[in-house]
Amino acid sequence: MSVEKEPIGVIGVGWVGLVTAACFAELGHPVIARDIVAEKVEALSRGETTIHEPGLTELLERNAERLTFTTEMSELLGGARLLFVCVDTPPTVSGDADLSRVRSVVEDLGEGGDHVLVMKSTVPAGTGATIRRELPGVPYVSCPEFLKEGTAVADFMHPDRVVIGVDPGDEAAAVAVAGLYEPLGGEIVRTDVASAEMIKLASNAFLATKISFVNEIANVCEEVGADVSEVARGMGLDARIGPAFLRAGIGYGGSCFPKDLKALKMLAGNSGYHFQLLSAVIEVNELQKRRVVNKLLARLGSLAGRRVALLGLAFKPDTDDMREASSLVLAARLRGEGAEVTAYDPVATEAARSLIEGVEFAPSALDALAGADAAVLVTEWPEFAALDWREAATRMARPLLIDGRNFLDADLLRGAGFEYEGIGRAAERAASPATAG
Q1: From 41, 69, 141, 204, which residue has the greatest number of CB atoms within 10 Å?
Q2: Are residues 265 and 313 in the same domain?
Q3: Distance from the Cα of residue 150 to its chain's centroid
Q4: Tens of pLDDT, residue by residue, the chain (437 residues)
Q5: Is 437 within a domain?
């Protein structure tokens, strides 16, 4: 006879919350997920997936009987003891994390009963201590998420590690949360709350540092005649360095790195410490997004009246997330230079419409390229690698492509008639500013 698993409560059904709810349901737990946005709850209750994440729709369909979506906190509190907080903590104008949604959860919880509050939202170190003081009778567990958009389901089901932070007195809660994750096989890291909070922020800061570092190396490679792809490959074979996050491009984006780096920088500053390295990482990333425009200027001269196609809008493939996407900066800069901008993305077009003004959204990559004087590959969607580039060249006014992710086969593109330039590859730089043609 199978034993019914403990019900799980999830507060917030954005990207992290919905993946968390679906995966716990897949593990056999009844899940009650609460969100304050009625339209989102209604859509999920009808079986409609509200975000694009590979494998998520299948999980939601397969476990529909285990999943309940509601706007009522009372229904959540009445049906689950372990409450996973998955609300957004976006940056404020100052760069600090906006904890208003977390505060709202704490207020709604009240006395808490026999519930356990499990914080998956990314919060500054010290947040857990504050909540424990305000809810002295509620056990508190810091269990930060380490999911990557595009592979979130796999990341949840096959974690590298699960971090569980508790302070004295809440050990029983830590055992309960650890028990949920033990079937997944990842190493359980038991620590205090503040350290758990810092592990999340420090991990993202280090990964972003690797990205900015290799982008700086790419810029130097262009000046000295080296190929950053070869440099990164040689670096990555060193076990102390590793190959992950050493791919040069036009910078990181998304919901995690930008806000978490700003939050960590502000956390340090508010504590009296100037995090100089992190400031440089952020600055390099912002400048990297703009270097593509300089490449186009070097090839085309003025961009006024030129038609430039952006291939990809989402900050990375396999997601429709437009938060901090490089395409936002590129589109604004290109329009600022007087260019006409067309764009295509396989899934993120609708999300982009409200964020990018003055851009013509095309129904396909070939339609976006039609009549263009240049194209920029912004997001490395697999369909771009499979595109008929010979056909694309015939449709463009000038077959010039800047590969912002070093994703495409340079020889194939040149064979199709393209002027091709990647990132950090000196041999592909324009010899001199081009004249109009």
Answers
A1: 141
A2: no
A3: 9
A4: 456 799 999 999 999 999 999 999 999 999 999 999 999 999 999 999 999 999 999 999 999 999 999 999 999 999 999 999 999 998 888 888 899 999 999 988 876 678 999 999 999 999 999 999 999 889 999 999 999 999 999 999 999 999 999 999 999 999 999 999 999 999 999 999 999 999 999 999 999 999 999 999 999 999 999 999 999 999 999 999 999 999 999 999 988 898 899 889 999 998 999 999 999 999 999 999 889 999 999 999 999 999 999 999 999 999 999 999 999 999 999 999 999 999 999 999 999 999 998 999 999 999 999 999 999 999 999 999 999 999 999 999 999 999 999 999 999 999 999 999 999 986 554 444 444 44
A5: no
Is 86 one of the catalytic residues?
no
Cα 206 to Cα 175, 202, 203, 295, distances in angstroms? 29, 6, 5, 28
Taking residue 195's Cβ as centre, other Cβ atoms within 10 Å add up to 15
In which residue are the tokens 């993120």 written?
348
Q: Is residue 436 part of a domain?
A: no
Where residue 271 sits, what CATH number does that domain have?
A: 1.10.1040.10
Determine the Cα–Cα distance for residues 168 and 192; give it in Å rounded to an integer.
Answer: 8
Q: Which tens digit of pLDDT belongs to each residue from 201-246?
A: 999 999 999 999 999 999 999 999 999 999 999 999 999 999 999 9
Give the whole-angstrom CA distance, residue 338 versus residue 134.
Answer: 54
Catalytic residue from among 23, 143, 221, 256: 256
Give me the domain span that covers residue 87: 8-191
Strand order of the β-sheet with 116-119 is: 67-70, 31-34, 8-11, 82-85, 116-119, 140-142, 161-165, 187-191
Structure tokens at 151: 């592979």
Judgement on whether residues 269 and 355 belong to the same structural domain of the protein: no
Residues near 25 by Cβ (< 8 Å), separated by ≥ 6?
31, 59, 63, 66, 67
Residues 224 and 308 in one domain: no
Same domain? 243 vs 369: no
Break the chain down into helix, strand, coil percent, rounded to 5: 45, 15, 40
> How far apart (Å, rounded) are the C-alpha atoms in residues 288 and 216?
9
Specify if 74 maps to a domain: yes
